[in-house]
Amino acid sequence: MRPDEFVINLIHDLEALPTSRTAPMRRIRREYSKRLETQSASYVMDLALSIICSGKHRWIAYELIQDHPEAFQSLDREALEKLGQGINSWSTVDSFARTLSGPAWRDGLISSDTICDWARSQNRWWRRAA
User: Fold this and answer.
1) Are residues 59 and 83 in the same domain?
2) Do residue 86 and residue 128 come from a single domain?
């Protein structure tokens, strides 16, 4: 399935829920994560970026990456900054930092210099992500 079709189906299933509570949304995300187990890191990254570009369910995109070992291990500064484009609220920055950038830093995928650069950013959301 093409990433854009996958994203359309995922968003449809999320929005078909009677409530937008985290637990039922996460159940759907887990189902979709299982479908991604055999996909490449680049496929998962492409669909995560498509979800982010849709303007909906950014945190789901982050969790799909986190739950796909190869995709998560492919994270570097460039990828994280691309995935973090548009962080603009407490919820978007906290989901980004908690799910992707913090664990990537912990695991040595990005350096402390990256975190220090973000901490000096003019953008308060990147400072918060640091």
Assistant:
1) no
2) yes
Number of domains in the chain: 2
CA distance to 29, 54, 119, per residue, from 48 (Å): 12, 10, 25
Domain of residue 83, residue span: 76-130
Is the separation of the CB atoms in 78 and 54 below 8 Å? no
pLDDT for res 115: 98
Question: Do residues 73 and 23 lie in contact, with contact meaning Cβ atoms separated by under 8 Å?
Answer: no
**Assigned token pair, 4:** 């854009």
* Rounded alpha-carbon distances, angstroms, from residue 57 to 32, 77, 106, 116, 120: 14, 22, 25, 28, 28
10-residue mean pLDDT series, the chain (130 residues): 87 94 96 97 96 94 98 98 96 96 98 98 96
CA atoms within 13 A on the CB side of 70: 11
Quick one: 54 and 88 in the same domain? Answer: no
List all residues 6 or more positions away from 77 whose beta carbon is below 8 Å from its beta carbon: 110, 111, 114
If asked whether residues 5 and 69 sit together in one domain, one would say yes
